[in-house]
Amino acid sequence: MTDAAASPHIKESSDQAFMADVVEASNEQPVLVDFWAPWCGPCRTLTPTLEKVVSEQNGKIKLVKINTEEHPGVAGQMGVRSIPSVFAFDKGRPVNGFQGALPESQVRQFIESILGGTDGAKQLQDALEQAEAAAQAGDIGTAAQLYGAVMEADPENAGAIAGLARCYLANGDPDRARQILDMAPENKKNDPAIKSVRTALDLMAEAPLDEELASAKETVAANPDDHEARFALAEKLIGQGKNKDASEHLLTILQADLDWEDGKAKAKLLEIFEAAGPKDPVTVEGRRKLGSLMFA
Prior knowledge:
Elements: E1 10-12, H1 18-24, E2 31-36, H2 41-56, E3 62-67, H3 73-77, E4 85-90, E5 93-99, H4 104-115, H5 119-136, H6 140-153, H7 158-170, H8 174-181, H9 192-203, H10 210-222, H11 227-239, H12 243-256, H13 264-276, H14 281-294
């Protein structure tokens, strides 16, 4: 791998320094975070490519590398399940990412999309941000129109495909949501945004009946320390798309026993984060609370 010391825009970091090296630094320019490990073959292919392309940008973007063998904390909080995993941070928050060893051409496209690339790319990015804001505000119709407009200009835009699918999901039409996701080209099917919606669809595949949910709530109310019953309630809430309530119940379990059932509650919570997406308030607040439990 390239000697990171050869470039002032590339550095090794740690769980302890993540806030300064990534979150705070991304207020000055975008920061890529490369989660890797020495034993990972694809990492040995991807990391030099990242270093090369970032170095060519002359400070427009930085690269921070985190060895997950030595520093697994932040990777765990962000739901990293396989490496290499790359996240782009801008203005203090994750804005995009990918998994696996992409070829240099796709790494360049990814970085160009983060930097805005051209005026046209900037317009598309602005439209995506407006669509996301509309969706967060509950204006699903406006969000769907904006995502659709981006797809007309860029049919392979993973963010627009995922966003439009999530709009259909929010309107109770999972079949149409799956159809939209199937429009993604093969090289975008593992994009984090698209995988996020697929996870949401999988979690909601078996929605419980209202009376089943009511019964589960009564069981937990009568036995607050019954973690198995609380976990079952969380799963039923997820099935009805009530991720915030589900995450609170899972965090209650983790507060009492961080490693309950060999990490069963934590794994389910990370599934919720993946399904909701990195910018959703459920994910942002949930990761903050999980982090406080893990590093207390």
